Design the sequence.
């Protein structure tokens, strides 16, 4: 599956997870261990994020690092929400969900979208490099205009 597909899948799963958390708060009941939820490598996106299919060059990038950090932050926040629910602290769980978790969620979704856009730009640059035989940064944005030189032009024609 491509990076873009994985990111789109993660954004969708993230939305489902937020609705599940909201349901746990509303029902005042949890059926998972908050300690397990705090682990950011146990969900499908986390398994992919930490897995071997992402190239080292991608892992070295700032977009990957930002998504990984925010994903871990969201898991920790979600675990806190569940701990509050488990202790009967619905108001505190709700405050976390609409406060810190909502902020981290928005940042995470934005970071994933930014990573996807950057991936498109990198792939576009690689396509240009393949087409022109040189890096996209070396391809002039405007065609070069050589000065008109009729003497040398005539030499090259004959």
Sequence:
């Amino acid at each position: 599956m491509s990076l873009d597909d994985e990111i789109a899948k993660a954004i969708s799963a993230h939305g489902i997870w937020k609705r599940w958390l909201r349901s746990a708060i509303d029902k005042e009941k949890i059926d998972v261990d908050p300690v397990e939820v705090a682990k950011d490598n146990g969900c499908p996106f986390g398994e992919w994020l930490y897995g071997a299919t992402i190239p080292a060059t991608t892992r070295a990038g700032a977009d990957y690092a930002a998504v990984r950090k925010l994903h871990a932050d969201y898991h920790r926040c979600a675990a806190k929400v569940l701990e509050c629910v488990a202790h009967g602290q619905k108001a505190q769980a709700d405050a976390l969900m609409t406060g810190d978790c909502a902020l981290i969620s928005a940042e995470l979704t934005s970071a994933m979208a930014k990573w996807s856009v950057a991936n498109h730009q990198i792939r576009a640059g690689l396509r240009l490099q393949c087409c022109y035989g040189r890096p996209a940064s070396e391809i002039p944005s405007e065609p070069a205009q050589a000065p008109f030189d009729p003497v040398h032009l005539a030499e090259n024609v004959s």
